[in-house]
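[User] Could I get a sequence and C-alpha cells?

[Assistant]
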Amino acid sequence: MRRIWLLGMIFLLSACSLAPDHPSYRQQSEDKNGARLMTDGRPKIDADRDLYNNFDDPENVRQNPNFISLTEGSENQRADTRKAAQLIERYTDYHADSIWFHGGNMYVTVDAPEELSDEERQREAQRIDKLLTKAIPTYEIIVRVN
C-alpha cells in the first residue's frame, strides 16, 4: 500500500509540471511585483556589451594605467604609438618624427621649424610631455624637439 501511494504521488507531481514549449512556461520566471531577472527579456547578442573589457582592442583593455597589461607586446605599443602621434598632430603644429620604446620609457622626437629658439623648444617639449603623460600615463615620456 505504501509503495502504491508513493508511486501515485510521484506520478501526480510529474504530471503537474509544464513542458518547456507550453505558452505559460515562460510566465513562471516572472514575479508578480514587477521585479524579475534582468536577463530574461534581453537578446543573447547584446550580452557581450556587458563584459568589462574588450580584449581585441588593447586601448580599451588598459583604460586604468594601474592595471597589469594582459596583452604585453607590440599591439599595445602600436596603439600607444598611434595615440601619441595623433595627439601631437592634433594639439600642436608639429609632426611626430619618431616614437620608440625602451622598457618603461617612451622616446618621442618631434619635428619643429628651425626658427624656434632653444628656450621655445624646451617649452614646447615640456608642453608635449604634459600632453602625452596625461593621455598615456603608463610610460615615462622623454620628448625631444628637433
User: Anything to note?
Assistant: DSSP finds four helices and three strands in the chain. Helices lie at 2-15, 58-61, 74-91, 118-135.
